[in-house]
Write a structure and sequence with these properties.
Strand content: under 5%
Number of domains: 1
Radius of gyration: 21 Å
Number of helices: 9
Structural class: mainly alpha
Number of strands: 0
Mean pLDDT: 88
Largest sheet: none
């Protein structure tokens, strides 16, 4: 029993130290964000940010399209077959709002970005740490947070917001395609009208806040674990795996917290 208590205590202390490190990195990123405009590295930071946006957002459009179209179709098939039994097929629009706008779009987009960009950040920065490139950057008087972490944070936040909007649009389109495939003769504008009838500002705010929070969590976790690599190359894959697991866990916890707050206070 004593060993179990010691184990749990160590895990709690480790989690607190880890979260403190993430918050400290967030503070450094915010400081770099407000000072980069006066930095001589402003142009370089802008170029890195643009490349990260292309990798994180544009290169992921195809897979986001497949996932969103598929999920939209699956949800429509499952709900329509049940609702039609009770004469409530017109509630499909409301279900799409609740399922996709509030939950699926931001969560699935976050999981996709974690698997692609989050893991890539840890691998890239971890290898730079092993090869002492970051030490060389610091020796030249360049802030690694401003040069490495800030561009990736801006890129992922931007990508999360844009891809979440795109996911919602693709999911609605996929839902409409499925309604036609299963024999529901409904015009596209009537389908959209049914969807927007249940869409409120509250839903848009919830979706945007979740996307923003996930967009901050993913690069912070990815970069923090990459910077935590010491000198051994074997640490890089371990830290990469840790990034995926930690980012998924934190995003799910944040999602649950924001969902609970939204239903209680909004």
């Amino acid at each position: 029993m004593g060993n179990v208590a010691i184990f749990i205590g160590r895990q709690i202390v480790g989690a607190v130290i880890y979260l403190y490190g993430l918050l400290n990195l967030l503070r450094s990123v915010l400081g770099a964000f407000f000072t980069v405009s006066s930095s001589p590295a402003q142009r370089v930071v802008r170029e890195i940010t643009l490349k990260q946006i292309i990798f994180t957002a544009i290169d992921a459009v195809v897979i986001v399209s497949f996932i969103a179209l598929g999920m939209g179709g699956v949800v429509i098939i499952q709900t329509f077959t049940q609702l039609s039994k009770f004469g409530a097929a017109d509630l499909i629009g409301k279900i799409l709002v609740i399922v996709f706008i509030r939950e699926f779009s931001s969560v699935f987009t976050a999981l996709l970005i974690i698997s692609r960009s989050g893991s890539a950040m840890t691998t890239e920065i971890g290898n730079m740490k092993v090869s002492q490139e970051i030490d060389a950057i610091e020796s030249m008087g360049i802030d690694p947070v401003q040069f490495l972490v800030l561009p990736r944070t801006i890129a992922v936040v931007t990508a999360m917001l844009c891809l979440t909007v795109y996911f919602n649009l693709a999911a609605v389109l996929g839902g409409y395609i499925v309604t036609l495939a299963i024999g529901v003769n409904i015009k596209f504008f009537m389908f959209l009208e049914n969807f927007f009838k249940y869409l409120t500002i509250k839903d848009i705010i919830i979706c945007s806040v979740k996307s923003l929070c996930f967009g901050l969590v993913i690069p912070l976790v990815g970069c923090f674990n990459g910077l935590s690599v010491r000198r051994s190359p074997t640490e890089v894959p371990a830290k990469t795996t840790k990034t995926v697991m930690d980012a998924v866990l934190i995003c799910i916890l944040v999602d649950a917290l924001l969902t609970a707050v939204s239903y209680i206070y909004l």
